[in-house]
């Protein structure tokens, strides 16, 4: 259970970083 909890936030962080990068590219 601990391992699963550790993998979840990691994946979320990766997705958040990708989202932030996309927003940066969208800005002029």
Describe the model:
With 28 residues, this protein is mainly α. The protein has one domain. 89% of the residues lie in helices and 0% in strands. It contains one helix and no strands. The protein has one helix spanning 2-26. The model has no long low-confidence stretch (mean pLDDT 83). This is Os03g0797300 protein. Residues 1-28 are annotated as: Disordered. Residues 14-28 have a biased composition (Basic and acidic residues).
Poorly predicted runs are none
Radius of gyration: 13 Å
Number of helices: 1
SSE pattern? H
Strand content range: under 5%
Q: Helix fraction?
A: over 70%
Q: Which structural category fits the helices and strands?
A: mainly alpha
Distance between the termini: 43 Å
* Overall geometric form: rod-shaped
The largest sheet is: none
Total of domains: 1
What is the average of the pLDDT values? 83
How many β strands by DSSP? 0
Protein name: Os03g0797300 protein
Region (Disordered): 1-28
Organism: Oryza sativa subsp. japonica (Rice)
Biased composition (Basic and acidic residues): 14-28
């Amino acid at each position: 259970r601990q391992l699963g909890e550790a993998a979840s936030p990691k994946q979320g962080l990766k997705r958040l970083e990708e989202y932030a990068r996309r927003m940066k590219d969208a800005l002029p």
